[in-house]
Amino acid sequence: MDHERYRRMHGRSGASMEKASFEVALKSKQQIAQDSWAFVFERPAGFHFRAGQHVRMTLIDPPETDSEGDSRFFSLASTPGDADLVIAMRMRDTAFKRVLGRLETGEKVLMQILLDVPHGAFALHEDASQPAVFLAGGIGIVPAFSMIKDAIERELSHRLFLFYSNRRPEDAAYLEELQELAEQNPSFTLVATMTEAARSERSWTGETGRMDQSMLAKHVDDPLLAVYYISGLPEMVNEMKTMLGRSGVGKASIQAEEFTGFDLNKIGPNAAGKVAGRRWRRFIPMVATVLAVATLVILHAGAAISIFRNGLGRVSAANPIWYVVMGIFLVLAIIKIAYFAGHHLSGRDRAGNAFRGHGDHTEHRQDGPSGPL
Prior knowledge:
- With 373 residues, this protein is an alpha/beta fold.
- It is 35% helix and 23% strand.
- An eight-stranded mixed beta sheet has the order 10-9-8-7-11-12-13-14, sandwiched between helices. Strands 4-3-6-1-2-5 form a six-stranded antiparallel beta sheet.
- The two termini are 14 Å apart.
């Protein structure tokens, strides 16, 4: 996770909220789905958190680093009642995750957590008369898994629904654990759906296709009464927000958490090459702008030379009119260059505003009831 709000709260810019810091040792790590791993850390005394809450993890003296830095924000997959701290993530080819993946048992990382859960945080509401409906995609299951387990462990009377979308069963982290929880607890309904079940090596008899309004209405008796928790890739989160809005669900009843920093099409054995390819593609707009500017300069220079040779050039180069004409062409070229450069930069700024703080180098972004936090 590396959302701008989280960086502010953890003191990287502006006022910071009070937080606690702990050095925690790795106990174990295990694969929980294809390309997804869970890292289990010792839970030190005094480490308190709320289900669904995030932590900031920082590598201690890493052997390698890159421009993305040595810190990330992650939701905890464990519950406040668990003895250990569990972080789950999709692995990709970055220095941070390479170092994390090579950690040996007993090696430590720094974890920081806010002492007060801020308003609008991704945490279960208190009014048990309102059902909690979780819409999770891929690794976005992590905070939902923690919150659902915690509600069951504390025997809360909330009615819980989880709509969990993946491409294939083997991509679904914690699927078996969730199925067991649903079988054992009548207050919890699991609706797992696969969008590419035909490509799976496992048989699948559950729901298929994308989560939509009809799937929601099929399982939730009163959709307008519920509080919704959406977590997954930005595209999925936006799609679910739109769907709920069209269904009449108000913004105050929707909390959203975006998990970014990876592309499902770029996960796997060829991830390193694909990441490198993505980095090269970043320079395409810059190259296009440079070529456009060069073309404009050449065209204006050519026009000026043509006029000089065929028209005003018959007059001595000392004639002031020649300099006026050249000045006009130069001004026109500068205006066009500024336009193209500004257009390119504004396009980059729009993209930055749309995904500020959680582009290629991040894990997580959170929205609250009233919009981006």
